[in-house]
Amino acid sequence: MNAGLGDAANIIGIxxxxxxxxxLLIWLERRLLAVWQDRLGPNRVGPFGxxxxxxxxxxxxxxxxxxxxxxxxxxFVLAPTIVFITMxxxxxxxxxxxxxxxxxxxxxxxxxxxxxxxxxxxxxxxGYASNNxxxxxxxxxxxxxxxxxxxxxxxxxxxxxxxxxxxNLREIVEAQRDGWFIVPQFFGFIIFLIALVAESRRAPLxxxxxxxxxxxxxxxxxSGMKFGMFFVGEYLGITLGSAMMTTLFFGGWLGxxxxxxxxxxxxxxxxIVFFILxxxxxxxxxxxxxxxxGWKVLLPAALLNIVVTGGVVLHKxxxxxxxxxEQNLTVLPESVAKLIPDRERLNIKLSxxxxxxxxxxxxVGRS
Length: 367
Fold this sequence. Notes:
The protein is about 60% helix and about 5% strand. The chain is mainly alpha-helical and about 375 residues long. The protein has 2 domains: about 10-315, no CATH class; about 320-365, no CATH class.
C-alpha cells in the first residue's frame, strides 16, 4: 500500500470546500433549472438569491426535530449520519492535483466503489426504522437499484484499469497524459454515467423517493436537520461522482495553461451541471424498466467492453514471440519478461528445448 497522508491544511481545506460546494449546489441547481425552464428561480434574498441557501439552513435548524413514536429511534437517527459520512469519506482518495489530496491508496478505485455501496445502508435503515410502508418500499427499491447498478459500475471501470494497469487514482490520471480515457473507453463511460446517476438516486432515476408513487420514499418521516443531512448527502454524492468522472475519463488535473487544481475544478463543475441538466430534461422511467435495462442491456454491454478492451490491450502490450532467423534466437518481449520472477532458473527448468542466453531463449543444440 502506498499511503501518503495529507497534512492538516490539505484535509481541512478539502473537507471545508466540499461541504461549501454541496451547500452552494442547492442554489445553483434551482437557478439553472429556472434558466432552462424560463423561470426566475431564487432571486429575492441577497445578491442573485445567494442568501436563499442560508435562509433554508436556518429554517432547517429551527424546524422541530421530530421522531415518530412508532419508529426505531436509534436507527432513525443513525441513518442520515451514514450517508453523510460515507460521501465525505469518498473524497479522501480523490487526487485533486499534484500534492493536493488527503491520502493516496494503491486501491483507491476499490475504496470508492466500496463506499458507494455502503451508502445504501443509510437508505435501508431509514426505510426500516421509519416503520412506514411508503418508506419501506422506497428503501427496498433503493437497495435493489444500488446493488444492481453497483455491478455495472464496477464492470464499466475495468477497461480503465486494464489500460492504466493500476487501481491507484493518481496513476490513472498520469496514464492519461497521451490522451483522455473518454475516447477509447466511451462505451465504458456511458455505462459508468448511467450507473452513477442510478446510485446517486438523482432524477430521472430517483425511484426510491418518487413522490407520485411513494409520497417521499425512504425519507417520508424525516424533518429538520435529519432531512437536511439526506439532502446535503445527495449533493455530496453528485460532487463525488463528477470528481470521479473527471479522474477516470477526463484526465483529472491534466490540461494546458491553467493551474492543475483549476483544471480539475472546471471539469468537475461541468459534470455537476450535466447532472442538473439531466434532472430538468428527462422523464422518470418505471422501476421495472430501470431494472430490466440494467440487467438486459448494461450488463452485456459492460462485459463486451471488457472483452474488447482486453483484446486491444493484449495486442498492444504482448508482442508475439518471434524467431530471429539470423541468430536462431527466440526473443521474449519485455512485457512478458517482467512477469517472470527468475527468468534464468524458470526457462532452464520448464523448457528443455531452450536454454537462456543473455536474457533470451536459444534453442538447445543450435549455436
